[in-house]
Write a structure and sequence with these properties.
Mean pLDDT: 80
Shape: rod-shaped
Number of strands: 5
Strand content: 5-15%
Low-confidence stretches: 395-399
Strand order of the largest sheet: 1-2-3-5-4
Number of helices: 10
Structural class: alpha+beta
Largest sheet: 5 strands, mixed
Radius of gyration: 44 Å
């Protein structure tokens, strides 16, 4: 058996106020219908029962309404108390407001039906339009509180729904903000890695060579390459800082590199990799098609840049080939470099470059692959191949 919860503090106050008011009316001799079958003292019994039902108006609204209905019916056989009727209206209101959804829908219709039946019955019994007054009393005591409870409950439910929607909106906004911050951090990490890693790798390789080979010409060449890459790295860093700086400065940051700068990128790799026995070839087979979308061109440039950096860091002597090919739907980028153990100085790697290339391709819904490849006849040396296919957004049916 489920125990009834402890009455709410407000319900206790309402019950006590109604009981006290009824006792004052009774002691003052104020009656609703003097001369009923039961004496004046009997009106205190329905009053006490109604006060007890009021205690349950919030914690057990269905039980409270059942007890209150019996009490108000019993009150009709006594001289009647206004406090009993007033408490009953409050119980009806609370039954709709705090009861189950089905009860909240059923009680107003039930009280409306009772009001109509009482009105018709009173008119038929009294054979006069004055019988409608009794129906009006029932409407005031039962139907009006039930209707008021419906209105208040609907308003309360609407306010609760609005509060929940506001919480959900705030939660979604926070999720969007977090995702935006995470995406921006990842983008910044890729940009920083791609712009600086190439130059720092060259600096690391040539500084190691200068320290390990005691030859004045080698040291001089290494220092020249170190200076060149230091200046270029600083320029790239200034560009990134210009993109991130939030100021009213009228100076515009340097434009992002495009595939038109690949010749310079490959030439720089030739200079840096000459001491390691690496040669570089650029095969641009794009033709004279329409310009590429900026995100595709930027991603392709960074993929080639990172692939060349990895070749300078890890590849043994041999040929590094950069190939670009454009179809109607995609731009294919392929960088093939020697694969195997490399003698002499080499720069350490963290694997972040491959992750960054994969992320760039994924953002464009393209395809990416990187790894060692064996020659078709199985007899040739292994190579390391980076291959990316970047979808080209079509414009007006043509790319």
């Amino acid at each position: 058996m489920t125990a009834i919860a402890r009455p709410h503090r407000d319900d206790v106050l309402i019950s006590a106020a109604g009981l006290l008011g009824g006792l004052l009316l009774w002691s003052a001799g104020l009656r609703l219908s003097p001369g009923r079958p039961l004496g004046d003292s009997w009106e205190l019994v329905p009053l006490a029962v109604m006060a007890g039902a009021t205690l349950l108006r919030r914690t057990a609204p269905r039980t409270s309404l059942t007890i209150a209905t019996l009490a108000v019916v019993a009150d009709q056989f006594t001289s009647g108390s206004l406090a009993t009727v007033a408490l009953f209206t409050d119980v009806v209101y609370a039954a709709v407001l705090y009861g189950s959804p089905s009860a909240a829908r059923r009680i107003p219709w039930s009280t409306a039906l009772i009001t109509v039946l009482v009105s018709i019955g009173s008119v038929a019994w009294l054979r006069s339009a004055e019988g409608l007054l009794l129906g009006a009393v029932v409407a005031i005591v039962a139907f009006a509180p039930a209707t008021t409870g419906v209105l208040v409950r609907n308003h309360r439910d609407a306010a609760e729904a609005a509060r929940l929607r506001a919480q959900q909106t705030a939660l979604l906004a926070e999720i969007d903000r977090t995702q935006a911050v995470t995406a921006e951090r990842a983008r910044m990490a890729r940009e920083l890695h791609d712009m600086v890693a190439n130059h720092l790798s060259a600096i690391a390789i040539h500084s190691t060579a200068a320290l390990s080979l005691h030859d004045a010409r080698t040291t001089e060449d290494a220092l020249a390459v170190i200076r060149e890459n230091s200046v270029a790295g600083l320029a790239e860093m200034r560009r990134l800082i210009g993109l991130l700086r939030d100021s009213g400065d009228d100076r515009k940051p340097a434009p992002a590199p495009t595939l038109g700068a690949l010749d310079s990128l490959v030439e720089q790799a030739r200079t840096t990799g000459a001491s390691s026995g690496l040669t570089f070839v650029l095969e641009d087979r794009r033709g004279e098609d329409a310009p590429l979308p900026a995100p595709v061109e930027m991603a392709a440039y960074r993929i080639v840049q990172e692939s060349l950096t990895n070749a300078l860091k890890h590849a043994p002597r041999g040929l590094v080939t950069v190939c670009l090919e454009r179809s109607r739907r995609a731009l294919r980028v392929e960088v093939v470099s020697p694969y195997g153990d490399r003698p002499g100085p080499r720069a350490p790697g963290s694997g972040a470059g491959l992750v960054g290339m994969r992320e760039r391709v994924a953002l464009l819904d393209g395809e990416f692959g990187a790894g060692p490849v064996t020659a078709d006849d199985g007899a040739g040396p292994k190579t390391w191949r980076v291959r990316a296919e970047l979808p080209v957004q079509e414009r007006g049916g043509t790319s």
